[in-house]
Amino acid sequence: MRDTAILIFDDAEVLDFCDPFEVFSVTNELNNYELFNVYTVADRKRAIRAKNGLKVQPEYGFRSSPAPDILLIPGGSGTRKVMHDGRALSWIKTAAAGAELLLTVCTGSLVLAQTGLLDGLKATTHHEVIPLLKETAPDTEVLPEKRFIDNGSVIVSAGISAGIDMSLYVVARLHGEEVAKRTARYMEYSWENEKWD
Question: Among 69, 73, 115, 183, which residue's CB has the most CB atoms within a 10 Å radius?
Fold first, then answer.
């Protein structure tokens, strides 16, 4: 059972955090609730307003959150504020230090770059903000053509729907391809090995 924390914040892109939440939660459901404990975390335990006005109540605030085995940072226009929020960056660094995997979707890579945790690695992000990622992460090799990139303990994906492919890849990496395929079938999601080779 891996504690899987999904960071949420105002103006987070809805599918950036909801898609991975669905992948990990469905995988858990299909496997006797034994693989992932998925939960949301925000700066405080108060409702956040995601992109286009969706209100979401996080399960934990920074102070009360369990230390995650997997930490996922979504994207969205709200990342620009998170990038300059010292408290959020400090929590991310602390959580990442003890985590097995650190994941980003879309412009979540900008937040990770701001912490220095992308230095020396390869990364991608939403196609419209590739120049900003290059500027924010000068010591990172930015690969715009990649849907997602596995750096070992740090896995980053491009925009929005790429988070589904990355999450299924993580399921396959941790629990085998058949477990990931079963999740994809349940979600009626067309998923082929070529997407993550």
Answer: 73
